[in-house]
Amino acid sequence: MNAASTCDHEPANRTIRTRSYYSFWGWFALLFGVTVLPTRIDRICRRCGTIVTSTTDPEELRKEA
Ligand SMILES: [Zn+2]
Questions:
Q1: If you measure from the C-alpha of residue 1 to the centroid of ligand 1, how many angstroms do you get, rounded to a whole number?
Q2: 41 CA → ligand 1 middle, Å
Q3: What is the span of the domain harbouring residue 21?
């Protein structure tokens, strides 16, 4: 993988988007409008699609939610 040469995917960069993953019960709760913490959040570079960071740390998840 040579993506680093075409793009700098800094976590603070504007090209980074986040993707949240929820457990089955998390999705179920969301259907009812209940706020739930994701089980995992990936930060993905919009330009090259590289997953820059991935966290399952509850402290980090709370900040992003
Ligand atoms: Zn990138």
A1: 11
A2: 17
A3: 3-64
The pTM for the full model equals 0.72
Question: Which of 49, 51, 17, 54 lies closest to 39 in space, CA to CA?
Answer: 54
Give the residue from 31, 25, 26 showing the smallest Cα distance to 41: 26
Count: domains in the chain: 1
Q: Which residues surround ligand 1, an ion (CB under 5 A)?
A: 7, 9, 45, 47-48, 50
Instruction: List pLDDT tens digits, range 51-64.
Output: 989 999 999 899 87
CA distance 9 to 15: 7
